[in-house]
Amino acid sequence: MAATRKLFVGCVADDFTGATDVANIFARGGLRATVLIGVPNDDREIDADAIVVALKTRTMATQAAVEESLAALRWLRGRGAAKFFFKYCSTFDSTPEGNIGPVADAMLAEIGETFTIACPAFPANARTVYKGNLFVGDLPLNESGMRNHPLTPMMDANLLRVLGPQSKAEISCCYYDTVKLGASGIGEWLTTADKGAPQIAVVDAITDADLIEIAIGFKDLKLFTGASGLAYGLTHYLVRDQGRPEAPLALGREGYRAVISGSCSFATNGQVAAMLADHEGFRIDVASLAEGRDVVGEAIEWSSGRLGRKPLLIYATAQPDEVKANQRRIGVSISGDLVEKALSEIARKLVENGVNELIVAGGETSGAIVKSLGVDQLAVGNEIAPGVPWVGATSNGRPLTLALKSGNFGGPRFFIDAWDRL
Ligand code: ADP
Predict the structure, then answer these.
(1) pTM
(2) Strand, coil or helix: what is 108?
(3) Does residue 123's CB lie within 6 angstroms of at least one atom of ligand 1?
């Protein structure tokens, strides 16, 4: 019933793509990482060094977000996690009342600790923190596109001011003057800063090297809060100092291969075009779908006899003009749902017919397909492109290797070259 290896990190992520992103960082650093979709209601066996529970708490009402996060934390605690990580976005996405402050407060109390850090810096994605202010590229957070975010507009770059009203803890800052001294300087700062009363320290960080020093300087903390950059630093520390050898998960089995694409992003359109140059493809005609034709049956019939190690492509991907025309004719949400439902059924049938290596393109599309395949756990393997790992899963008892690609990720040959990374 318990995990068979020591669980180094138990992570609670406040959204789904953030969960796979952070799991990918753990895995890239050499930890075996697994993502759980929601808090499991069983005590399953998981062979992982890092378990990430994917929640959707970012914009939830505060009390509900706290309760779900604590349920995830308790589950991870029950697995004997040595450290806990509350993962949020590197742009500190949160409503004014938070989930970040209240969840961090509640997690600290739950594990009987008083001190944690808030470190959203992710230099690889140009998110840095200086003097407690978050920058996106050259711009303060509130001057970046985050100002206009539909759900969590960020109007202040100063994280002490953002976090203050959200949290009951004292909000302090570990300034770059300290961070640049490295782990020993940070450790010394902590001994004077920690007064045994609840406190969240915003930590400045500009480079990946800073994040490693931060992880080592704060290594005795039980709870870390931040984005994937801090996970990078923490993984480096855990793998180096705790002696977990790099052990990428072996994925890929001798089955059939397919790509299902429901993303209409610029990048995906390019990837579909590149694949069609020398692979067979079946285009889902949305107008026919809307007329009630059995497009799913046609796609499956087309695929039978063609399935093999050379991947097939089934796609609804279209250029913006065509998508707009479909949306005008059928409605935005109806056309989206129709396509997602059709692609989910196709995925399920392809898996029944022997496909066990499947790439899915599109965030919403991936969500729909993962659900229809009955997948609730993802074991993270090799990274294909930044932010997109191969993941191992099980669908109704069948082992599957999946890649879930969010629309704009990946280079033009993603669908063709991804298999080399298995
Ligand atoms: P991305 O990650 O690129 O945003 P998503 O899968 O999240 O991709 O979103 C794409 C949406 O567009 C899905 O709801 C999908 O069903 C819908 N869609 C895909 N193809 C078409 C099409 N040809 N016409 C209209 N909607 C489409």
Answers:
(1) 0.81
(2) helix
(3) no
